[in-house]
Sequence to fold (253 residues):
Amino acid sequence: MSTSAEPGPGDAATAPTFDQELLSWLGDATPEVREHDTDLVRAIAAEFAMGFGALAALGPAVTIFGSARTSSTHPSYAQVRAVAAALGEAGYAIITGGGGGLMEAANRGARDARATSVGCNIELPHEQHLNPYLDISLQFRHFFARKVMFVRYAQAFVIAPGGFGTLDELFELLTLIQTATVRHFPAILLGDGEWDGLLRWLRDHALSDGRIDSADLDGLQLTDDPEEVVRIVQASGRSTFREPTWEPGGAPN
Fold:
């Protein structure tokens, strides 16, 4: 939850993160420096292998996205904790970004229900601390590797109120669904009135102008009721799960 990392302004004196170095413009860098990029593939592959290895045995799971900045006294914190607990009691592991705010609330709810609680933390220019309610703690240096873990091991997604990080995760998920890159449904929007303006804009502009189809919004479901979240997730099941069409060590067809 957020799963989202939603940092404040960075400290210019802070050492750059791995992703900052990877994605920064190379400018007048020498050919030797540019050729070093190929060496990064090994580090990236190792990070994927770490995540896959740690989560390979994870059972049914739900990923919860939401703000890292929300205090424990905010109503959203209690709501997300209750939703995660209800999902945990129904037999689902909970995956979040492992930090504070609503991520902590989700992992805490999983702990309340004695469900497996997973945190996929991210290296940031300022340190993001892991919350104390995790059974599996993973540290990532690459946003893209971390995002794969959120999607690959979840059969449904709960999106709680958040900022840029949460919106990024929501729209990336919708893009993956729209393009049939994943078939994981549903995407459940949590928070009374939180999403009204965004959904109205999508319908009145993006949809009415033909930039998306009505089916692109069908996977979005709104509720504030933890039990309704569980019912939606259970109804989705894994009916869309497909066995891999490739052999270990080979390439996908």
Notes: The two ends are 33 Å apart (CA to CA). Residues 44-236 form a domain with the Rossmann fold fold (CATH 3.40.50.450). The first helix runs from residue 18 to 23.
